[in-house]
Amino acid sequence: MINRLAQILLISILTLGLMGTVNAATVSPQTFNTLKKAEQLLDQKAYGKAIAVLQTRLGQVGSKPLEQALILRALSSAHAAQGNYQRALAYLEKALATQALTDTQQRQALRMLGQLYLAQNQPQKAIKTLESWLTTAPNPLPEDYLLLAQAYTQLKRYRPALKYINQAIAQASRPKESWIQLRLSLNYFLKNYAAAIQDLHRLIRMKPNHKPYWDQLTSLYQLSRKPISAAAIYELQSLMDMLTKEKEILQGIQLLRAIHVPYLAAQRLQQEIAKGRVKKNLKNLNLLASCWTEARELKNALQVLERAAALSTNGQVHFRLGQLYVEQEQWQKAAHALRSAIKKGGLKSPGKTWLLLGSVFFEMKKTGQAVQAFKKAMQYQQTRNSAQQWLAFLSNKTS
What we know:
By secondary structure, this protein is mainly α. It is built from 22 helices and no strands. The chain is rod-shaped.
């Protein structure tokens, strides 16, 4: 931020010039010619020579307050143009202390002083000086309000900073991208999410292919509890082929699931796995199966789970596979999947697996195997009551 301010400061100082407000009738010819010579040297970027000329004249003016003030002000400009802001500050403070400058010169010097304070990372002094200057400034520029916004931002005083950046943007015919970025940050810090979203829309119009703006817009819609809008931005990014990293693609898939469009989520994920941008691993296959299951596309879900089961080191995927086969009333396949789940182990709830297997055997009319499965389920507290009920039912049925 300080480097950017220094550039603004340098442009402001050099375009102001040293002679713009100096009347030859009010100063001696020697001082007038010295200021003119120094201005020419500054235009040539001969900063050291300009400083030497001014320093020599400063020792010659004697007790002439106005001429002292003008030479000091010129020295401040020369040192600032050279990048020596500390010395520039000292000379400008001395120039103002003479109280000899005209009203116009005083205003210009105050503006320059405020900029120098800011360039020297003294935002509190910059604010005091620039706000004092604003009270008498006839035509403040958008850049002046910007400086105050930046000063308040440095102090983390976001509300007054927002007031000034709004004034800068409103007054500018074509606000710069960095100005909108600053207002976006302030609105975000103040949790003005609706306003921040509008800022991002404006930034996207400025730079339609700048991906970070789209990502921030998605995040802000989520913070604003507008998941449909967030998912819509994800879809736009997909259509523009902006999403290439696995993490962001998967985040988008979850957004689609959150707004209850699992079919589209499954399609997107399947496409990205096929393209190789999402790994074809157990975790992602499980996610794809969940999307197809939520979309009630059970045939697709079963196909994916069969692939996932082959990669699994425990029985959990086989258990899910068994559940889906039960829904499809494919008892033989369900029994095979559930047996595989038990064999592989590592189940979150072994009792539920035995209980489901017992019900499958019952549907297959394999009562003896069903009883054995329910007795296994009896060993787990979570499924003990259900297993007892099944065993009682089977006992009554066979008696």
